Fold these 2 entries.
Entry 1:
Amino acid sequence: MKLFLMECGKTARGILYWLFVLVLFFAGVRPLDETVESELRQKDDPSSVFYTAADGVYARDSGGLTDREIQENMMAGAVARLLESYQKNAYEYYPFGYVKTKTLSEEGQRVILSYLEELTGMGEEAINGAAEESGEEEFRISGGGAYVLEPGQGSMAENGQYVIEPGDWKYTENSAEIAEASVPFDRFQEIMGEVDAMIGRGSCFSGEMLELYYCGNDMESSPMTERQHREFYESDHVTGAFARYYCDSISLVVLGLPALVMVELMMKDKNRRMQALVYPRTVLGARLVCTRFAAAVCMVMVPVLIFPARSLVMLVRFCKETGIQPDVFAFVKYALLWILPTVMLVMAMGLFLTILTENYSGILFTGLLWLAGRPSIGKIAGGNYGLFDLVIRHNTLKGYGRMTENLPMLALNRAVISGMALLFVALAIIVYETRRKGVGIFEKRKFFNGFKVKCTYKP
Amino acid sequence: MFGLIGRNGAGKTTLMRILATLSRPSGGQVTFDGIPLEDVKRIRSFIGYLPQEFSLYPEMSVQEVMGYLAALSGIPGKVWRERIPRLLRKVNLWDDRTKRAGRLSGGMKRRLGIAQALLNDPQVLIVDEPTAGLDPEERLRFYALLGEFADSRTVLVSSHIMSDIEAVCENVAVLDAGRLLFAGTAGELAEKAGGKVFEVTVPREGQESVKRDCHVLSAQGHGADVRIRALADRVPAAGRSVPCVPTAWDGYMELLRRQEQEVGE
């Protein structure tokens, strides 16, 4: 235990560890806190996950739509989104799995304008005029019909947030009223393809994203359906939905940075020239490697578990006020089941590569792992799990059902990832023991700048 | 105490590393009291090692470093809680126990090094070039300390400074280019130069002829003359030569001279 605690202390003294904590905070915790606050503030808004319809009537579930209705929804939603992006000259795309915004040149904006003219049948003046009128207000598309925010509705709160009251919404059965596409679906797809090429990889207008957002994947920021409402309150107990969302937010951070923490810890022996003091000790290599691994993993998991505390308190408070039983351990459960296996694998690879090469190439390899291991955009809605997926995505507060439907594959995936992590730890132990006994590995290779022994002994 | 002496690159550190189970020999056999080197776990339980080049986690305090290495040595908490203060007092670092290892002077670091090597109360203490980089006073203090620890255990110390080895070791081995040239007492080593050490006094302009005929050990100016201590197979022809009583240092130099002659031939 003493050794474990000392290794924890060593980990906490690393610069890269604090870099990880910082990135984790900005990439995962702040978005979570903001989302919780925003959803709570708009809890009476039909699109908020907290929304409870007084009359018990919710939006239609997109699962019951026909293909034609889905196409119409997709076109209406995409055109509305394109219009909004054009107005702000801010086009969202996901180059590395995280959302980024692209600003187009004047020429690019002109091209988009021509597409909008073609798609809506409106002229330049009308499109730009719509921009001036609509201001910051957004179109909300949902299956079959839509809640439309009328221009001039909503108000600006003191903190600068735009607040929409329930009365600000007007429900319309035909979403085409919002932004009617006046082209056939094939031409719509062609235009979207060209827009996607202009914006860049993973834009919101790629076929993959359109399918994701408008084909019943629980990704829409549309009004809650009854199923989603039930899942949120009865299955997720409120906190579960946010725990998944949090795990998704930090998924790309934990796919890479924990390896740096491990590499830094393992390189300390070499950098401080401590190997000659550590290697001849009686401690078993297995014990030392496992202790270091466990300590580093624990230190990485500590902020992962602590950071959502503020959001959890807000959610529990809401639950108490409304008489709902929250799952106070939701964040811990999801962090341990979804995040821990990824952290273990990434750190185990960092551990193994650092012991093998005794240099920082572990960082390079884990960088490559990060690039290769990022899930495709199609997986961000969750529920679509592969056996060897390194991270689990679930970039929505909805979709509990999608997860449970694929739970066996999810469980298998996490088990496989954990198993691979343990395999790398086992390999690391073997290499460590070999090194301790003075067997040089890659001694002659400059790239693997190993623990060189200049042996001049001649019997 | 057993001293291992040799030039830089003679193989002292390699041998020390082999004995400390950090390197594998390319040939030959090593046993500790009958225990083969391959029984690494057993050997590690009774050896202590202070490497020539080492550093410590600079962010840890002296006490933390000791505690960490004690944990790695598998020493029970009850034992190290008593042993660490005792060792730190012994090496005169108790008052500096909260000081960060990165802020220790060279001498303090060496003393901490010897303390950590004694953590598991080893029967064999392997100390590689312990005084490299220390000033003469620190060197003397360090060897005195090492002498204290040698009372109840075998201490194997390497150096390329003969006077250090001669002052503290009963037995000496000379290593050169990975080969053992000599093993015996310091007196026996001195005898290797018996009848071959001369003090030659020559005018300054005549010292070149002495250098040609002899192996110069030292030279000291005395007014217009130079007093040269030299190794030679016969009495040097130049100047006034007086035979000298050889020291272990002379014996060591004689061994190296012979070795060079053999290689030259």
Entry 2:
Amino acid sequence: MTRSLASLSSSPSFRRSSSARFYSPNASLALVTPLIAALLAGFLYPVARLIALSFSGGTLSHYRRIFAEPLHLDVLFSTIEVAFVVTVASLLLGFPVAYLMARLSRGLAMAVAACVFIPLWTSVLVRSYAWVVLLQRNGIINKLLIDTGVTEWPLKLIYTEGAVILAMTHVLMPFMILPIYSALRALPPDYVRAARNLGAGPIRAFVAVTLPLSLPGVFAGSIMCFVLALGFYITPALVGGPGSMLMATLIGQQTTVLLDWPFAAALSTVLLAVTLLFVLLFRRMLSLSKGLNSVY
Amino acid sequence: MTSLLSRSTTVLKATIAGLLSLMALSLPTFAAERVIIASTGGAYDKALQAAWFDPFTKATGIEVVTVAATNAEMRAKAAAMVKTGNVSWDLYLDGEIQAASKAHREVTEDLTDFCRQFAGREDLSANACSAGGALLQSTATLLAYRIGEAGEPVPETWADMWDTEKFPGERAFPNFDDPWRVMAAALLADGVKRDELFPLDIDRALAKLEQIRPSVSLWWKTGDQSVQGFRNREYSLGQIWLTRAKAMHNEGLPIAWSYNASFLVGDRIALLKGAPHRENALKLMAFWLNSPQAQAKACEVLSCTPPSSEAIAMMSDEARKTMPQGDDVRDYVIIPDAEWINANAAMMLQRWNEWIR
């Protein structure tokens, strides 16, 4: 995320806003110290305590248990699968919205942005319950399907894996739209005009110019969606059935039902490690692929 | 709207209590005038407030401050408070079975000494006060069903729940991380005798559950889901809480239930280790056990079974009819083996997770 912002600031339209060079290194350091202190106290220290807890008793027994019982790995893989599907769905649905927002006039773009932001500011709980209302047996969608004669009996929509993916995509879409939007906004319209001027059709201009230059935003949005999806808890609990068990569900059980905190810490550490691994893999893939150097 | 209001007043009260307890650092005399209890909030809290907390405040001048949380949150928070030595609650409510667990005993004070004063009380049930907490009330988890046409057979046992030919329609079972009730129902349906139920034969229970699985349309996680599912006709037979079944009956829904297939589980009031207002907390607990009027009033609303038989006698006939008690308990109701459940909780949940996915 910070990387992609840095790359944005190096594009011409942002250059004038890079004020860092006005301050001496010491002054800059003094300015970021509060943030670093807050991160150390509020984030790194608790995470370190969590990891230490997972090794409590000085043994690896909690980790051995995770890998000895197939359930935990199965759930981990299905969590990754769900996160991946949600990310792809958010990208496919979110990109056109971001593209539209970047191309509309200011007033209309504000209206679309409001449609993106208001759900973002609404509690996840409320949005998930809204899906319960829509998808339940006598819900709005089933009523519509029956009234229009598509089905005779109400369909089983709620408490399924499909419902989990749908609701999670809805909750996470703003995190995809906003980075793509900022990447597209930073793109000078002259580039597309130049491509058109040189004889490219609208599709060719999009594929050859707009799309590659929007990739930093796409990657930033994808990694954010993916990472957030890996840790989702409330939405799967409300709209998912017994089959849609995710890592966060298992961690929650250990924390609140069995009070086995060392084991919960070990599960959390594994999830954290997998998340970091994916972030690193993403970066590695990006640095290997040519033409995307602008991302990093 | 009223519940919103009452919640905001609860929050307000908690905030004021927090501010006052800050003041109490400099004015120690103030600290003796209140007691802080965590409970599950909502209708439950309101009933306890009217029947128990308000009369207590009137009698002793000690203010009762309530904090709302789910049972799981309370358990995790209480453990965190005691582990970090930063205890801000005095009492919290926990399930009867959890209250007998090792983890619970590490977080709460042993009440054996406190319980001695109730040893000679004939009206109180034998388990009314134990080391893990004082008994607040008991409620049943049982087989509830949609009432059919007159003359149709009525399901009475767990074997009937499994008989999809005689009783067609979809089923509902709980899936809230505490699977012994479902497994026990499966074993009873499979012909295991009531007194030979524990230790649970997990393999046999899961094999029996596999038979009913295609008919299960709802695995509910919260009481609200079980209610909403019945309203939406998502199931016609379900293992649900009596309190919820009663609430739906009061709403006018065509629901009935069988005590023949019920499990009785209580809620306990536990005292945190290092509670800031320990003496007041003990007084509040004693007030509950010593006051059949309070118990009767609360359980009349919540359709629970109070710990005192005198309280049962004070309740209306109508409330008594919808409450597992006396002969029911002796003849059908299953009282779980808390010790075995606690010792095997992790194993059961593991097996359950593997099966349910």
